[in-house]
Specification:
The structure is a single chain. By secondary structure, this protein is of the alpha+beta class. It is built from seven helices and six strands, in the order αβαββαβββαααα. The strands form two sheets. The chain has a four-stranded antiparallel β-sheet, covered by helices on one side. It has a two-stranded antiparallel sheet with strand order 4-5.
């Protein structure tokens, strides 16, 4: 529960101009409440490499309360800062992005769904299913099914 509460106190700020630094972020976001931390991820993934950009264009601000974070979102989302429009919302946990929840999986990845709805390949209507139907027709085991649309096309020609 503590991590969930802490997550609602942290906000994501995207679309930052290159000339924005931690001080600018602090100055513009402190009116909404007490800021615990400002993180501005560096652009350099390799510290030995020099780059022109100082940061990656986004930041995280952690407030002392969730209400302060929500006030910052309500007031700063889609506002302009140094010539660029900001996108401000609740920061998502890195763990959630790395380990997707069960709800993000395709329904057919579940064994229960497969057992309930999946058909054997011969009945599925795929290539093998069509080949099995042709073989059954050739042996006289199955009456030929006619699609009404096919009949209409045949009459038109």
């Amino acid at each position: 529960m503590e991590e969930e509460t802490r997550g609602k106190k942290a906000i994501f700020i995207g679309g930052l101009a290159e000339d924005v630094d931690e001080t600018v972020i602090y100055e513009h976001f402190s009116p909404f409440g007490d800021i615990v931390e400002v993180q501005l991820p560096s652009a350099a993934t390799n510290p030995a490499q020099e780059t022109d950009a100082k940061h990656r264009g986004f930041a995280f601000v952690t407030y002392s309360s969730a209400a302060d974070a929500q006030d910052a979102i309500d007031n700063m989302d889609l506002n302009e800062l140094h010539g660029k429009v900001l996108k401000v919302n609740i920061a998502k946990s890195v763990k959630a992005a790395i380990q997707p929840a069960q709800g993000n999986r395709a329904i057919w990845e579940s064994e229960e769904w497969l057992q309930k709805y999946a058909k054997p390949l011969a009945q599925s209507g795929g290539v093998q299913g069509r080949n099995a139907q042709r073989e059954a027709r050739a042996n006289g085991d199955v009456e030929e099914l006619v699609n009404p649309e096919d009949e209409e096309k045949g009459m038109e020609e």
